[in-house]
Design goal:
Elements: E1 2-7, E2 11-13, E3 18-26, E4 33-39, E5 46-52, E6 57-59, E7 67-72, E8 77-82, E9 91-99, E10 104-107, E11 111-116
Parallel strand pairs: 2-11
Antiparallel strand pairs: 1-3, 3-8, 4-5, 4-9, 5-6, 7-8, 9-10, 9-11
Length: 117
């Protein structure tokens, strides 16, 4: 099993920056994908960004150029630097990890990010 714990969610002003972090623990495979999803009230959870063990990244079109995901394999952590935040970025952000075959998903408890106008 894998446990994911997020931190860094706070209230920020539009145009500001924020960094989210996720610490993974448990039976972590050396090859895996970690990322961030977000869900606003009444909306479907959506992929924000993800990164493979080898460092390959994927971003949602809505955050390209503003968010940067990175990871430290030795520490089993993944972070996401969020710049030029917009009110529409307001959501609960969830850390996610995929590993194994068939692929098994693991989720963090979520952290609230609120961007004020």
């Amino acid at each position: 099993q894998v446990q994911l714990v997020e931190s860094g969610g706070v209230l920020v002003q539009a145009g500001g920056s924020l960094r989210l972090s996720c610490l993974a623990s448990g039976s972590i495979f050396s090859i895996n994908i970690m990322g961030w999803y977000r869900q606003a009230p009444g909306k479907q959870r959506e992929l924000v960004a993800r990164i493979t063990s080898g460092g390959t990244t994927t971003y949602a079109d809505s955050v390209k150029g503003r968010f940067t995901i990175s990871r430290d394999n030795a520490k089993n952590t993944v972070t996401m630097q969020m710049n030029s935040l917009k009110p529409e970025d307001t959501a609960v952000y969830y850390c996610n990890q995929l590993q194994g075959w068939p692929v098994t998903p693991y989720w963090g408890q979520g952290t609230q990010v609120t961007v004020s106008s």
